Amino acid sequence: MSTHTEHTVAGVERPGTIKFAVAMMITGAVLRLVDMIITASSKSQLAELTRQQVESQGLEASTEVLNAAVNQAVTITMMSGIVAIVLWLWMARMNHTGRKWARTLGTVFFVIAVFSFLFTLTTPAIGISRVVATLSLLVGLAAIIGMYRQDSSDFYAESSGH
Fold it and tell me: Transmembrane residues, as ranges (predicted)?
């Protein structure tokens, strides 16, 4: 018979800070899905941004080239979005069960997300996408804070038997 219940892992009570961090991770996955939907439905705006960027460099691009660039950007966003959603949900599950390594890996993912966010600030983007990206970063920060609270640290230590 399993010693896991909705509120415990191996008999260790799951603290509210872990529940909060997991909820933030699920929220992060949802925000990434929202970003994917925005990107897929904003092809004409992306084409205009791309055209403006090309023209600002004194170049010209045909409609075919612009469409190809937009389609490539949308494809990359969709593929990276699927990977991000899977990682958000995987981290939520592993942290929910008290895996100490998941907190460390989640922290690494957050650091990567910060650098990625800073990079995206240097590129043209649709305004609402920047809002969603900012919210995602704040959600990630909230999850990190929840995972490193003292009662969360105690939970990880007790769940891993250390």
Answer: 20-40, 69-90, 102-121, 127-148
